[in-house]
Amino acid sequence: MKQNLTIIMLIILTPFIIKAQSGKADSFRPGEIWPDDQGIHINAHGGGILYHNGVYYWYGEHKTEGPGGNRANVGVQVYSSTDLYNWKNEGVAMAVVDDENSLIVRGCVIERPKVIYNRKNNNFVLWFHHELKGMGYTAAKTGVAVSNSPTGPFQYLGSINPNPGIWPLNFTEEQKNSTYPDNMKSWTPEWIQAVKDGMFVVRDHKKGQMARDMTLFVDDDGKAYHIHASEENLTLHIAELDEDYTAFSGRYVRILPAGHNEAPAIIKRNGKYVMITSGCTGWDPNPARSAIASHIFGPWQELGNPCIGEGAEITFDSQSTYIIPVAGKPDYYIFMGDRWRPKNAIDGRYIWLPLEFDGDKPILRWYSEWSIP
Ligand code: DGJ
Known about the structure:
By secondary structure, the protein is mainly beta. It has helices at 2-22, 173-176, 189-197, 199-204, and strands spanning 45-52, 55-61, 75-81, 88-95, 109-118, 123-131, 141-147, 155-160, 214-218, 224-230, 235-241, 248-255, 262-269, 272-278, 289-293, 300-302, 307-308, 319-325, 333-339, 349-358, 361-365. It has a single domain, classed as 5 Propeller (Tachylectin-2, Chain A). It is built from four helices and 21 strands. It has a five-stranded mixed sheet, with no helix packed on it. The structure holds (2R,3S,4R,5S)-2-(hydroxymethyl)piperidine-3,4,5-triol (DGJ).
């Protein structure tokens, strides 16, 4: 009898003992410390995922401890995984440099790095939001780098304000020819109307448009898009990349003008494009937004806050950064968000939740621990 009980206990406990010994995770625990293969909290904030040849690569901002930890003191970090729970630190994919003449000098701002694979050139293309050292967030540039390996090293090609001298596809002749008084008072009804009408597009036409929070998206036809918060973070731009994915093709649209969206994340589902964004409140969380479109260039229809339940009004204390289509699981997606910790940026946490749907409307619910079914 006693022997039987021991055998039963062993059968029940063995999987847990094996799991504890291997240290392998088999669930997500949003908001908790997430150890990598070395037992160190993953350092890949504002990140994005590339799935290539059966491996997921997670690129993100390498943050450091203490004040200034949100600046690029190291570069873009990359991790790899085959199951999305357990991540191997693959090191620094693109490193900052100590040459003060370089735009990616240590101490600049490198945010929201995203990598896509270019089939034509069989290489990997990294884009990131780039602010120049000592200039706050005024440059609003996007930087690009390439590598022959998903883990880098990525070679930095340069940073730009997109589409100088080129008007958005959905800009009328009247909009192109409009003039606006200098120094209009912000947030008055006239100013909001002027923003909607494209005041900042006109202002930045010659030098190129602003590009802050960004993501990348590769469509089924191989065309890649750079989606970024432009026009002083008031309007999103969706801009097509060229065949190499290393430059803008010149075809771009403004969407949700004066909608004040940032942190864009996008998927294609059932032939429709679904986007999650946030409002603009610095490092503080705010209610997420969602939108859907039949064509990537719009029109986009707003669907409201995807979050439901306690914490919905602050996206469960997070901000969107990417949506992962899970390989081999049709119609299964994971929302990736950041819980920022600006006082000690390296302690920022990751809020990964299953992205559910009610018809076409994306839904996010809080789960303190969950697994892919
Ligand atoms: C919110 C953005 O989404 C972040 O990426 C970062 O730029 C912070 N603002 C800076 O305040």
